[in-house]
């Protein structure tokens, strides 16, 4: 995937869903844990040297697995390179759980699945497609897994 470096820097300056100084170890053999400012912005995890304003790296949180390593440590590994893990050390067990939860919820796929679930539930309860009013009800990205669009049912006989 290609990124425009200037746009990523601008994105890194946006308000974050979560930010903290964490210990971080990169995926290369011999990498050591270093203190980094870590910021979650939309579905990117930016990391900075603690005394600098520009990020030194960013992880796109798609097609990845987030796992708890121990009570205060979690890792992120990408599905196409599962053996390469980024490891993050938190100050508390609670902070670790909050980071894991936030990262899982930041992915586009998580948000898409939630949208489809709630769309289906609203349709089941009301008989109406909530996306229809926005003109996007037939878009493929909003379809349930079988690929068929929701069809409004006739509720007049109920």
Automatic annotation (TrEMBL):
Check the record and name the Gene3D superfamilies matching this protein.
Pleckstrin-homology domain (PH domain)/Phosphotyrosine-binding domain (PTB)
> What SMART domains has UniProt attached to this entry?
PH (SM00233)
Gene Ontology CC: one annotated term: trans-Golgi network
Q: What InterPro entries does UniProt report for this protein, alphabetically?
A: Boi1/Boi2-like (IPR045188), PH-like_dom_sf (IPR011993), PH_domain (IPR001849)
**Which PROSITE patterns does the UniProt entry name for this protein?**
PH_DOMAIN
SUPFAM superfamilies the UniProt entry points to: PH domain-like (SSF50729)
Q: Where is the PH domain?
A: 15-108
**Domain of life of the source:** Eukaryota
Question: What are the recorded Gene Ontology BP terms?
Answer: endosome organization; receptor recycling; retrograde transport, endosome to Golgi
Which CDD domains has this protein been placed in? PH_PLEKHJ1 (cd13258)
Signal sequence span is: none
Q: What is this protein called?
A: Pleckstrin homology domain-containing family J member 1
- What is this organism's lineage? Eukaryota, Metazoa, Chordata, Craniata, Vertebrata
